[in-house]
Specification:
The protein is an alpha/beta fold. Helix content is 55%, strand content 15%. It has helices at 12-24, 41-55, 71-77, 80-86, 98-107, 113-126, 131-145, and strands at residues 3-9, 30-35, 61-65, 90-93. Strands 2-1-3-4 form a four-stranded parallel β-sheet, sandwiched between helices. Strand 1, helix 1 and strand 2 (30-35) form a beta-alpha-beta unit. The protein is globular, with a radius of gyration of 18 Å. The mean pLDDT is 94.
Length: 147
């Protein structure tokens, strides 16, 4: 089973994990880490490395971070040489959202790590919608079709 780790500023990752539990149950090999104010990035990096070792069962670890280029991302990317040395296959996906994580949790038994990362990214992209504009466009299309 592919392990999943959520890393965020503050309690965002914990909140997403809680929501995933409400929707699909409490998954195994699924954990979170939070960057707290004043925390050293090297301490966060070490925590990410430790958690990724715990979550890896040989099929890799998918790590979601909240922001590209921010501390959780930077700390994760600092793990790359260690993951390579330990032969841990890992992917880091930025822009974490609930739809992305649900997709990963639900599909990880039937996908490779690379494919799972791509599925999660696609799910995140597809879930971004301007709901009012979509509704308005649908109504306008329906009304114009009536003429």
């Amino acid at each position: 089973m592919i392990g999943i780790l959520l890393v965020s500023h503050g309690k965002m990752a914990e909140g997403i994990k809680d929501s995933v539990g409400m929707i699909v149950g409490q998954p195994a090999q699924f954990d979170t880490l939070a960057l707290i104010p004043g925390q050293n990035i090297d301490d966060l990096k070490n925590s990410i490395l430790d958690k990724s070792k715990q979550l890896n069962q040989g099929e890799g670890v998918l790590i979601f971070v909240d922001l590209y280029g921010a501390s959780p991302y930077n700390a994760s990317m600092k793990c790359l040489p260690d993951w390579q040395a330990l032969n841990i296959d890992a992917r880091v996906i930025t822009g974490m959202s609930l739809p992305m994580v649900i997709t990963a949790v639900c599909n990880r038994d039937s996908s490779t790590l690379y494919d799972l990362a791509q599925e999660a990214i696609e799910s995140g992209q597809e879930s971004i919608q301007d709901a009012i504009a979509a509704l308005t466009n649908t109504n306008q299309t329906t009304e114009s079709d009536d003429y």
